[in-house]
Amino acid sequence: MIDRVRNFVLVVLLLGPHLSFSQDGADKGKKENFGFFNFIEAKGHFGNFVRHTDSLDDVLKGNYYSGEVRVGFQSTGKADWQNLYKLPSYGFGFFHGNVNSPKEIGNPMAAFFFFNVPIVRGGKVDLTYDFSSGLAFNFREYDSAENPRNDVLGSKLNIYFNLGLVAFYHLSERIDLSLGFDFTHYSNGAIRTPNKGLNMYGMNVGVRYHLNPVKSFTRLSDPDFQPEIRPQYKIRKLPPHQRYLEFYSAVSGGLKTTSADLDDRDTYHPIFTWTIDGAYKYAHKGRIGVGFDYIYDGSMERWLNFIYPDSTHDWTDFSHVGVHIGHDLVVQKVSLVTQVGVYLYEGNEKGFVWARVGLRYDFSDWLFGRLALKTTEGFIADLTELGVGIRIKKNLRRPKDLN
Amino acid sequence: MLRSKILFGIVPMIFLYSCATVLGGKKNSIVIGEYIPADAEIYLDGNQIGTGPGKYKLSKGVILPGSSLHVKNGSDTILNQELDLEAHPAYLAGDFLLLGLGLIVDVPTGNIYRPKPRKFFTRDDR
Fold first, then answer.
1. Domain boundary among A211, A228, A258
2. Residue A8 reports pLDDT greater than 90
3. pLDDT value of position A400
4. Residues of A with CB below 8 A from B61's CB?
5. Angle of CA points B77, B80, B81, to nearest 5°
6. Do residues A228 and A70 make contact, with C-beta atoms less than 8 angstroms apart?
7. Domain for residue A4, yes or no?
8. Are residues A213 and B95, on separate chains, in Cβ contact within 8 Å?
9. Minimal CA–CA distance to B115: which of B27, B43, B22, B41?
10. Per DSSP, what are the bridge partners of residue A369?
């Protein structure tokens, strides 16, 4: 008996540390969604151009085709916002396109962020919408002497934007095939003219390879452990939303050029905007609001001097005052801002209706930053704003408090 | 010519030497600040990894998602914390600035993932 106890104690002492790791190894097998659900994706795009200007007929003679590589993260619902968007996937990608116009337009490349949200998750097929945005480069910009035929993009660096519908077919545990339809846009937000932008629409096909790199962590403690490759898609119900009113103000600045600057590639004009908004956070996902805008467009001085060389102008001719209504789509700290506005005062005519599309990032409860594109005369790019703002919140009663 | 140099020279370098893999290495560290007794015992998943304040470098694979960190002072438990591994924002940003190619190495190897939380008993925790 004493020998048995002694042997038991010896075994425990010798294996103790290893037993601790082994126990953890046993736990992780039972743990739902253990590890990291990642994927690598390759996609090919092909399609045609939206020919919104006659000059494109000469420059863009064929179709476009392009390829991209993505590295992505499949969310599992740890964070609230992931449940709101039905467990989206997101990540980074690199894009290389061929627009069949290497001398005039160049061969665009882009590094971008993507966000892929399920609309319907079926057994073998998922239907999703896909949004990508990033920085595009490797363009041959307009130059009145050397590249006059490119009258759509005035800069080497542009914004890349892609929106599409994509269906995924689960071919195996690790591999999905995808087929989609998408729209692509390049422009520079009127920072450098010409900026008519390049728009394309087409199809895309792809392959997505799923992996769970937690295996490279468990190799040491449990070489036989085989992690799940895909997570369990369980959407968690969130607690009732705390509705609140929000008042915020932002100042932004930027640079702009006009058609009068086509031959001067070095000069930029400053722009400044100031906004005051009131908004109602009606749900986890969204905010609606109204606001007031002051817009100072320094490029107006150059433009007015160009078209009316004999007259004089002051800052009131470069200023605009407007009001807007808007909606923000909220994804945790990031909001997709969309606004439509009208001018109450126009220093010089810009068209009655304008819009704003942008991103806002909340650094804290009171401080945020934003990057936005304001349009004019409907939806023609007017200026790009980069700014900061402050906000105050006033909580409203929770739904259950109303009883 | 210049573009060929970029494609065949710099890009493979970026690809091979990705941000997290190079800068972060294959070890993860836990920082125990000075605001605990010098003889406090530090346990990870039941195994003692050290005593008192210090920076504990642990091989990749020792800290797993859901690992537990215990700090004991004599018979008193002064910390019982579940750890997670999360994609490190600085490495993500670095890889993205290098055209995203670094992610092709850092994500499949898991090197992009680092412990969170990682620092305890520091000045901020007083």
1. A211
2. no
3. 55
4. 216-221
5. 160
6. no
7. no
8. no
9. B27
10. A361, A388
Residue A108 sits in a domain of what CATH number?
2.40.160.20
Domain membership of residue A70 (yes or no) is yes
B60 Cβ under 8 Å from any chain A Cβ = yes
Q: Any CB–CB contact under 8 A between B59 and chain A?
A: yes
Query: Under a CB-based contact definition with an 8 Å cutoff, are residues B32 and B121 in contact?
Result: yes
A225 at interface of B, judged by CB pairs closer than 8 A? no
Q: Show which of residues 51-90 on chain A sit within 8 Å of chain B, judged by CB atoms.
A: 69, 71, 73
DSSP B4-69: HHIIIIIHHHHHHS-HIIIIITTEEEEEE-SSS-TT-EEEETTEEEEESSEEEEEETTTS-TT-EE
For chain A, give the longest Cα–Cα distance: 113
Q: Cα separation of B105 and A94, whole Å?
A: 14
Q: Which residue of B has its CA nearest to A135?
A: B99
Share of chain B above pLDDT 70, in %: 75
ipTM over 0.95: no
Give the largest CA-CA distance in chain B.
Answer: 69
Q: Is the dihedral of CA A66, A70, A76, A80 positive or negative?
A: negative
| pTM for the model | 0.84
A8 lies in some domain = no
| A160: in domain | yes
A22 pLDDT more than 90: no
Q: Predicted confidence band at A12 (pLDDT cuts at 50, 70, 90)?
A: very low
Q: How many CB atoms lie within 10 A of CB A294?
A: 15
User: Sign of dihedral through CA atoms A149, A153, A156, A161?
Assistant: negative
Asked if A218's CB is within 8 angstroms of B64's CB, the reply is: yes
Mutation site for A-interface testing, chosen from B88, B107, B116 by largest number of A Cβ within 10 Å: B107
> Would you call B58 an interface residue with chain A, using a CB distance cutoff of 8 Å?
no
B65 touches A: beta carbon within 8 Å: yes
| Residue in this structure with the two tokens 């005052």, named with its chain if needed | A321
Domain closes at, from A189, A211, A233: A211
Q: Are residues A250 and A186 in the same domain?
A: no
A236: which DSSP letter? P
A45-96 pLDDT tens trace: 999 998 877 777 777 878 999 999 999 999 999 999 999 999 999 999 999 9
Is the model's pLDDT at B73 over the cut of 80? yes
What's the token pair of residue A187? Answer: 């422009």
Q: Which of residues 92-111 of B touch A (CB under 8 A)?
A: 92, 95-96, 99-101, 103-104, 107-110
- Whether A217 sits inside 8 A of B85 (CB atoms) is yes
Q: Could A24 and B64 be called an inter-chain contact, meaning their C-beta atoms sit closer than 8 Å?
A: yes
